[in-house]
Amino acid sequence: MKIDKEKCIACKTCYPYCTVGAIFLPKGDENAKSEVDQDLCVECGECFRSGVCPTDAIFMPELEWPREIRPYFANPYAGHWHGKEGAKPPPEIKLNDITGRIQEGMTAVVIEVGRPGIGTTFREVQKVCLALAEVGVVFDPGGPLTSLMEDPRSGKIREDILDERCLHVFIHFSVSDANLGDSLKALREVSQQVETVFSVGLSNRVGEDGSIPTLGIAGEAGFSALPHTKTNVGLGRP
User: Fold this and answer.
1) Which residues pair with 121 in a beta bridge?
2) Which of 3-17, 76-90, 101-115 is modeled with the greatest confidence?
3) Which of 7, 127, 130, 213 has its CA 20 to 30 A from that of 193?
4) How far is CA 70 from the centre of its chain?
5) 134 inside domain
6) Are residues 119 and 10 in the same domain?
7) Are residues 21 and 104 in the same domain?
Protein backbone atom coordinates (compact mmCIF):
# COMPACT_ATOMS: atom_id res chain seq x y z
CA MET A 1 0.00 0.00 0.00
CA LYS A 2 1.11 3.57 -0.64
CA ILE A 3 -0.04 7.10 0.13
CA ASP A 4 -0.12 9.91 -2.42
CA LYS A 5 1.72 12.77 -0.70
CA GLU A 6 0.08 15.31 -3.00
CA LYS A 7 -3.33 14.32 -1.61
CA CYS A 8 -2.47 13.40 2.00
CA ILE A 9 -3.32 15.99 4.66
CA ALA A 10 -1.66 14.06 7.52
CA CYS A 11 -4.93 13.72 9.42
CA LYS A 12 -3.94 10.26 10.71
CA THR A 13 -7.51 9.01 10.26
CA CYS A 14 -6.25 5.86 8.55
CA TYR A 15 -3.75 4.89 11.27
CA PRO A 16 -6.10 2.69 13.39
CA TYR A 17 -7.08 0.69 10.30
CA CYS A 18 -3.59 -0.64 9.61
CA THR A 19 -3.44 -4.24 10.83
CA VAL A 20 0.30 -4.05 11.59
CA GLY A 21 0.82 -0.38 12.46
CA ALA A 22 2.79 0.35 9.28
CA ILE A 23 1.45 3.88 8.67
CA PHE A 24 3.46 6.67 10.26
CA LEU A 25 4.22 10.39 10.12
CA PRO A 26 7.93 11.16 9.69
CA LYS A 27 9.34 13.22 12.54
CA GLY A 28 11.28 16.46 12.22
CA ASP A 29 9.32 17.88 9.29
CA GLU A 30 6.34 20.11 9.98
CA ASN A 31 5.18 19.60 6.40
CA ALA A 32 5.50 15.82 6.50
CA LYS A 33 2.78 13.62 5.06
CA SER A 34 1.82 10.13 6.20
CA GLU A 35 3.80 7.23 4.78
CA VAL A 36 3.53 3.44 4.72
CA ASP A 37 6.53 1.50 5.99
CA GLN A 38 7.05 -0.78 2.98
CA ASP A 39 9.02 -3.34 4.95
CA LEU A 40 6.30 -3.68 7.59
CA CYS A 41 3.22 -3.47 5.35
CA VAL A 42 1.60 -6.87 4.65
CA GLU A 43 -0.53 -5.57 1.74
CA CYS A 44 -3.79 -6.47 3.47
CA GLY A 45 -5.49 -3.45 1.88
CA GLU A 46 -7.56 -2.65 4.98
CA CYS A 47 -6.56 1.03 5.04
CA PHE A 48 -7.70 1.38 1.43
CA ARG A 49 -10.92 -0.65 1.73
CA SER A 50 -11.99 1.20 4.87
CA GLY A 51 -12.64 4.30 2.78
CA VAL A 52 -11.77 6.57 5.71
CA CYS A 53 -9.23 8.72 3.90
CA PRO A 54 -10.98 12.07 3.27
CA THR A 55 -8.83 12.83 0.23
CA ASP A 56 -8.54 9.34 -1.29
CA ALA A 57 -4.77 9.48 -0.88
CA ILE A 58 -4.34 5.75 -0.20
CA PHE A 59 -3.87 3.51 -3.22
CA MET A 60 -2.91 -0.06 -4.09
CA PRO A 61 0.19 -0.15 -6.30
CA GLU A 62 0.92 -2.94 -8.75
CA LEU A 63 3.06 -5.50 -6.96
CA GLU A 64 5.95 -7.49 -8.35
CA TRP A 65 7.39 -10.81 -7.24
CA PRO A 66 8.18 -11.67 -4.49
CA ARG A 67 6.13 -8.90 -2.84
CA GLU A 68 3.01 -9.99 -4.69
CA ILE A 69 2.84 -13.03 -2.39
CA ARG A 70 1.88 -10.80 0.57
CA PRO A 71 -1.83 -10.19 -0.19
CA TYR A 72 -2.53 -13.93 -0.42
CA PHE A 73 -1.60 -14.25 3.24
CA ALA A 74 -3.14 -10.99 4.46
CA ASN A 75 -5.92 -9.70 2.21
CA PRO A 76 -9.15 -11.75 2.46
CA TYR A 77 -10.20 -10.49 -0.98
CA ALA A 78 -7.05 -11.81 -2.66
CA GLY A 79 -8.16 -15.41 -2.22
CA HIS A 80 -5.87 -18.34 -1.44
CA TRP A 81 -2.47 -18.75 -3.01
CA HIS A 82 -3.11 -20.97 -6.03
CA GLY A 83 -0.40 -23.48 -5.19
CA LYS A 84 1.14 -25.88 -7.67
CA GLU A 85 -0.72 -26.70 -10.85
CA GLY A 86 -2.70 -29.91 -10.50
CA ALA A 87 -2.23 -30.09 -6.73
CA LYS A 88 -5.50 -30.65 -4.92
CA PRO A 89 -5.86 -28.85 -1.58
CA PRO A 90 -6.82 -31.02 1.40
CA PRO A 91 -10.45 -30.95 2.57
CA GLU A 92 -11.33 -28.46 5.28
CA ILE A 93 -10.99 -29.91 8.76
CA LYS A 94 -14.25 -28.31 9.88
CA LEU A 95 -16.08 -30.20 7.14
CA ASN A 96 -15.08 -33.59 8.55
CA ASP A 97 -18.73 -34.63 8.87
CA ILE A 98 -18.86 -34.68 5.09
CA THR A 99 -15.31 -35.51 4.07
CA GLY A 100 -14.34 -38.07 6.72
CA ARG A 101 -10.81 -36.73 6.62
CA ILE A 102 -10.05 -37.46 10.28
CA GLN A 103 -9.96 -41.17 11.07
CA GLU A 104 -9.86 -42.94 14.41
CA GLY A 105 -6.49 -42.54 16.09
CA MET A 106 -5.58 -39.49 13.99
CA THR A 107 -5.41 -35.79 14.81
CA ALA A 108 -5.61 -32.97 12.26
CA VAL A 109 -3.41 -30.05 13.29
CA VAL A 110 -3.55 -26.43 12.15
CA ILE A 111 -1.00 -23.88 13.34
CA GLU A 112 -1.67 -20.20 12.75
CA VAL A 113 1.62 -18.31 12.70
CA GLY A 114 1.25 -14.53 13.10
CA ARG A 115 -1.75 -12.45 14.07
CA PRO A 116 -3.10 -8.94 13.39
CA GLY A 117 -0.98 -6.45 15.27
CA ILE A 118 2.26 -8.36 14.87
CA GLY A 119 2.24 -10.29 11.59
CA THR A 120 5.16 -12.50 10.64
CA THR A 121 7.56 -13.39 7.85
CA PHE A 122 8.00 -16.61 5.94
CA ARG A 123 11.40 -16.92 7.59
CA GLU A 124 9.67 -17.22 10.97
CA VAL A 125 7.14 -19.65 9.52
CA GLN A 126 10.03 -21.73 8.21
CA LYS A 127 11.44 -22.08 11.74
CA VAL A 128 8.22 -23.79 12.78
CA CYS A 129 8.13 -25.99 9.67
CA LEU A 130 11.74 -27.11 10.10
CA ALA A 131 11.11 -28.08 13.72
CA LEU A 132 8.04 -30.11 12.75
CA ALA A 133 9.78 -31.82 9.85
CA GLU A 134 12.53 -32.99 12.19
CA VAL A 135 9.99 -35.09 14.11
CA GLY A 136 8.56 -36.60 10.94
CA VAL A 137 5.54 -34.39 10.25
CA VAL A 138 4.15 -34.70 6.71
CA PHE A 139 2.59 -31.40 5.62
CA ASP A 140 -0.72 -31.48 3.79
CA PRO A 141 -0.07 -31.83 0.03
CA GLY A 142 -1.77 -29.24 -2.12
CA GLY A 143 -1.91 -26.66 0.67
CA PRO A 144 -0.86 -23.06 -0.08
CA LEU A 145 2.16 -23.17 2.21
CA THR A 146 3.29 -26.64 1.11
CA SER A 147 3.38 -25.41 -2.48
CA LEU A 148 5.83 -22.70 -1.42
CA MET A 149 8.28 -25.18 0.08
CA GLU A 150 11.44 -26.15 -1.77
CA ASP A 151 11.22 -29.53 -0.09
CA PRO A 152 8.11 -30.41 1.97
CA ARG A 153 10.03 -33.26 3.61
CA SER A 154 12.42 -30.80 5.24
CA GLY A 155 9.97 -27.93 5.73
CA LYS A 156 12.30 -25.55 3.90
CA ILE A 157 10.50 -22.66 2.19
CA ARG A 158 11.75 -21.17 -1.07
CA GLU A 159 14.52 -18.67 -0.48
CA ASP A 160 13.11 -15.75 -2.50
CA ILE A 161 10.09 -15.22 -0.21
CA LEU A 162 11.63 -15.82 3.22
CA ASP A 163 11.76 -12.12 4.13
CA GLU A 164 8.30 -11.29 2.80
CA ARG A 165 5.89 -10.21 5.52
CA CYS A 166 2.36 -11.53 5.91
CA LEU A 167 -0.45 -11.17 8.41
CA HIS A 168 -0.66 -14.88 9.20
CA VAL A 169 0.13 -18.24 7.67
CA PHE A 170 -1.57 -21.58 8.35
CA ILE A 171 0.43 -24.80 8.62
CA HIS A 172 -1.69 -27.95 8.12
CA PHE A 173 -0.83 -31.57 8.75
CA SER A 174 -2.33 -34.79 10.15
CA VAL A 175 -0.56 -37.05 12.59
CA SER A 176 -1.32 -40.24 14.49
CA ASP A 177 -2.28 -39.76 18.12
CA ALA A 178 0.80 -41.83 19.00
CA ASN A 179 3.08 -39.23 17.37
CA LEU A 180 1.12 -36.12 18.31
CA GLY A 181 3.10 -35.64 21.51
CA ASP A 182 6.40 -35.35 19.62
CA SER A 183 4.90 -32.72 17.32
CA LEU A 184 3.61 -30.65 20.21
CA LYS A 185 6.91 -30.88 22.09
CA ALA A 186 8.69 -29.63 18.97
CA LEU A 187 6.29 -26.69 18.86
CA ARG A 188 6.98 -25.87 22.52
CA GLU A 189 10.70 -25.76 21.82
CA VAL A 190 10.48 -23.65 18.66
CA SER A 191 8.09 -21.20 20.36
CA GLN A 192 11.15 -19.81 22.17
CA GLN A 193 12.92 -19.15 18.87
CA VAL A 194 10.32 -17.34 16.75
CA GLU A 195 9.82 -13.58 16.75
CA THR A 196 6.05 -13.74 16.45
CA VAL A 197 3.16 -15.70 17.98
CA PHE A 198 1.34 -18.83 16.91
CA SER A 199 -1.71 -20.77 18.02
CA VAL A 200 -2.35 -24.50 17.70
CA GLY A 201 -5.68 -26.10 16.80
CA LEU A 202 -6.29 -29.84 17.22
CA SER A 203 -9.15 -31.82 15.72
CA ASN A 204 -9.99 -35.48 16.30
CA ARG A 205 -12.90 -37.85 16.65
CA VAL A 206 -14.48 -37.94 20.08
CA GLY A 207 -14.41 -41.39 21.68
CA GLU A 208 -17.60 -43.37 22.15
CA ASP A 209 -17.33 -42.64 25.86
CA GLY A 210 -17.16 -38.90 25.16
CA SER A 211 -13.41 -38.66 25.76
CA ILE A 212 -11.23 -36.29 23.74
CA PRO A 213 -7.89 -38.03 23.09
CA THR A 214 -5.87 -34.90 22.34
CA LEU A 215 -6.50 -33.22 25.68
CA GLY A 216 -4.29 -35.54 27.67
CA ILE A 217 -1.59 -35.60 25.01
CA ALA A 218 -1.56 -31.80 24.78
CA GLY A 219 -1.39 -31.49 28.55
CA GLU A 220 1.64 -33.78 28.76
CA ALA A 221 3.37 -31.63 26.10
CA GLY A 222 2.77 -28.48 28.14
CA PHE A 223 -0.26 -27.10 26.34
CA SER A 224 -3.42 -26.06 28.16
CA ALA A 225 -6.55 -26.26 26.03
CA LEU A 226 -8.88 -23.29 25.78
CA PRO A 227 -12.63 -23.97 26.13
CA HIS A 228 -13.38 -22.92 22.55
CA THR A 229 -14.39 -25.76 20.29
CA LYS A 230 -16.27 -26.57 17.13
CA THR A 231 -18.16 -29.84 17.35
CA ASN A 232 -19.56 -31.77 14.42
CA VAL A 233 -22.33 -34.07 15.60
CA GLY A 234 -22.21 -36.63 12.80
CA LEU A 235 -25.06 -35.50 10.57
CA GLY A 236 -22.96 -35.53 7.40
CA ARG A 237 -22.03 -38.44 5.19
CA PRO A 238 -18.32 -39.27 5.61
Assistant:
1) 165
2) 3-17
3) 213
4) 11
5) yes
6) no
7) no
